[in-house]
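Researcher: For the record, we're logging two predictions in this thread. I'll number them. Prediction 1 follows.
Model: Prediction 1, sequence and structure:
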Amino acid sequence: MSHGDVSQVILDEAVADARLAVLEFDGARAWLDEARRHPMEPLAAEVWVTEPAFEHVLLVKHRVRGWVPPGGKVESGETPRVAAVRELLEETGLKAELLAEPAAVVVRSYRADWSPTLGLSYAAIVGREVPLGGEQNQPAAWFRLDTTWDSVFPEDRDRIRAHARRLAAGRAVGSR
C-alpha cells in the first residue's frame, strides 16, 4: 500500500489513534508525522488480548516471528481498528470489542527486507474460557504474563506486561 493508496480518512484515523495510544515506542508519532509527507509503507494493527485477571496474554504462533499478538496488515479501505478486529477474528476465532484507547504505537520492520512500518496495538479483555479457533498451522494459545515466550520481538513481553498492569490498576481503582 503506497501513500497514494492510503486514503486521507484512513491516514487521519491512524494518526488520531497513534496520538491516543497509551504507550509510544521508537518515536512512532514523530515518525508518522514525517512519513505522511513521503510514500507510506503498509500500516499494521494487532490486539493485545488479556483476560479479566490480567495474568495471561493471547498469542498466535507465526511461522517466522514466533509467538506474537494476533495482527497483520491494514488492508486497502480499512482503518487500523477495523483491521485489528478482523485479524483477531481470523487468527483466533474471537470476536471481541476493543478498548477505546489504543494500547501502543510502534515503528518496526516486520521483515528484514521491508521498510519500517507503523503498528498500532489495540487491547481487548476476553475470558480464557472462550473457545479459540483461527488459522490452520498458526495456533493461538494463552501465555502467563510472568513467563517468557519465543518471539522476534522480545521487547513486546515487557510492553504487554506494563499495559496489563496499567489495566489492572485502573480496574482496581474503578472498583473502589
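Researcher: Logged. Prediction 2.
Model: Prediction 2, sequence and structure:
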Amino acid sequence: MANSKISPVTGRYVTFDVEGEEYRVFYLENGTGQPIVCQHTAGCHNHQWTGLLEDEEFTQNYRIIAYDLPRHGKSDPPLNTEWWKEEYKLTVDFFTKFVVAFCDALELEKPIFMGSSFGGNAALQLALHYPDRFEAVIPVEAADYAPGFYLDWWHHPHANAAQVCASGVWDLMAPQSPDKHRWATWFYYTQGSEAFKGDLYFYSVDHDLRGKLDQIQGDKIKVVMMTGSYDYLTPPEDGRRTADQIKNAKFIEMADIGHFPMSENHEVFRKYLKEALNFIGESTTSKA
C-alpha cells in the first residue's frame, strides 16, 4: 500500500537465567553503536520508548534497546517456577541482577543504562552495585528515596485496578505534553495493573539509598540525573539533592515535562537526552 510504513524497530525474545529462574524476555531494538538499555516505568512496558527507538538522530550512533521486565508487556513470569503461589514483590537484588543478566545475554560491553521512575531508581542501584559493568547510567525521574506508594488500593477489589493505575499517573504528566501522547501513556498503564503494586514495593520500600550515595564510584561510572519540572512524585529538588551527593554526577532539570518524559513528550525529552549523552561522551574522552 502506498501509505504503509514499516518501522525499522525489531522485536526479539531472549531466554536466560537469573538465580536459577528461567525468563523469556521480549525486547525492541534499533540502531548501531554504543548500546543504551532502556527500562520502562512501573507497571508499564517498552512501548514507552518508541519515540527514541525511531529517532534517527540517536539510532545513527546508538543501539537503542528497550526490554519488557518479566511480568510486563510480552515478558512472562519465570518459566520454571509456580510463580502464581507467591505475591509479586520486586526487590533491589532481583532487579539489578536481572538487568546485568539481560546485558550479559545480549553480550553488551559497557552499555549505558537509562530508566525512568522506578527504572531511574534501578539506575542508581546499578551505579552503586555494578559500577564496572556500565559506561554510565541515566536515572530519569529518580531519587535516593521515594516512600509512600506501596498501597493496597492498587489492587482493591472494589476498584477497577486497570483504571485506578492508569488514572493515578495522569496528573504526573505536564499539561503542555500533546494529548495524543498523554492518552497513549494512560493507555499503556491500563495494561500493566497486575504488576504495578509489586513494582512499587521496589520503588517505595526496598529502594533506599539515603546515606549511601557517597559510595557510588563516580570516577568509574558516569551518572546523569534528569527530572521533569512537572514531576511532583520525585520533584527536581529531589533529583538535584540526590545528584549533589554522587561524585562527578550531573543534574538536568527538564522544563515543561512530567514524570513520563519519553512517552508523554519525546520531542522535549530528546533535547535533554542529547545534553546528557554529550556530557557522557565528553567525560569519557577526558578520562581517556
